[in-house]
Amino acid sequence: MSSPSATAGAVTPPDASTTPTTAADRLLRIGAVYAEPEARDSERGQQVLSRFPGAEVIEVPSHWQIPELHGNEGNVERWVRVKSGTLVLGVKKSLSARPNGRSSDFIAPSTSNGCAMACAYCYVPRRKGYANPITVFTNIDKITRYLRGHVRRQGVKPEPDQVDPRAWVYDIGENSDCSVDALVSDNVADLVATFRELPTAKASFATKFVNRELLDLDPQGRTRVRFSLMPESDAKLLDIRTSPIPERIAAIDDFVAAGYEVHLNFSPIVLREGWERDWAELLTRLDDEVGDAAKQQAAAEIIMLTHNRDLHEVNLGWHPKAEDLLWRPDIQQPKRSQSGMWNVRYRNAPKREAVARVQDLIAAHAPWIRVRYAF
Ligand code: SF4
């Protein structure tokens, strides 16, 4: 750590113009770490800092109060530079596991939030301002202890549901992408190890990044990875900084062989001219390329796009082409989210028709995919 007691200031992340050598380098070239003192001094905090020895360390009173990072204004052009050049270390104060019922039974307390990737439709930054770098919570021992207690209190799952026939499933990546988080700290490894020893529960996370270091974590079937997939042409425009779709598909068999349960996250489904043809192509490709072991355990969730007016405005400033696909007032309607934000989603009729159409396409081209839920 080069300057542990510096006060928060306008630190410019490193120039991203030098040639990266690995996928991790491409995503993260950390030049500044904003740290709460307790987080900085913790074992996990020191581990993270040791991975980025050249980074300047800037003390901050709270991981939530870093206006020069999290503010929206003036950061549009710097968005990606902030994401790739900056980390935050904090301590997660209140721990709770929220009931979910869709992708999981419970949302586990976050061990991180923020993301170094920059999908144009991402809801993760909305709570914290838009240039939303990764915040690592360093009190991982407390979080895994809480999770073990929560799992114990649930007892045995009384009956199967769409989430899982037997296990209580905990989403460990609601506010981040765990595959990228694992480049930054051992929090994900610790979560995988925790669930390995919980026979009544599973961890689960959706991801758009292939981190092959995860193949060494020995999950023994207690962690479910949900690879997010969409037609390649959509991903090229919308999934900024993520692993390409062919790389995600190619990883499926390897993750199954390494002991993960692998599901598919068809999300978001974006309605545009030609979308059905391109989804049919993607499903056919999956049918051709995925092995039998992966097919036997496969399941998918289907999630239609929701978007947000504020994010639309921000995107117009840096990636207006994405908005041609995402912002469709002709077929969208406003909807107040659980957190009180005004989002837009496809109107009821086109949405209903599209959900049915996706299910038909799956039945026609990849009938081995069990649809867990669609909305
Ligand atoms: S990978 Fe996930 S968390 Fe990261 S920007 Fe994309 S949608 Fe958001």
Automatic annotation (TrEMBL):
Pfam families: SPL. It comes from the Bacteria. Residues 1-23 are annotated as: Disordered. GO terms for cellular component: endospore-forming forespore. Residues 12-23 have a biased composition (Low complexity). Gene3D superfamilies: 3.40.50.12110, 3.80.30.30. The keyword ATP-binding does not apply. GO terms for molecular function: 4 iron, 4 sulfur cluster binding; DNA photolyase activity; S-adenosyl-L-methionine binding. InterPro entries: rSAM, SPL, Uncharacterised_Spl-rel. The keyword Chaperone does not apply. Keywords: Lyase. This is Spore photoproduct lyase family protein. It comes from Pseudonocardia broussonetiae.
